[in-house]
Amino acid sequence: MPKEIDTGKKEYFIPLYVERLQNYVGLDGDNDFSVVGGGHPGDYPSGAGNSTVLDVRQKVAPSLDFVMPDVTLDDGLQNRLPKHYGFLKSVSRLALDAQTRLGSSIGLCFDELAADGTDSSKSVIQKWGGYEITIER
Question: Residue 115 is part of which domain span?
Answer without folding.
Answer: 106-137
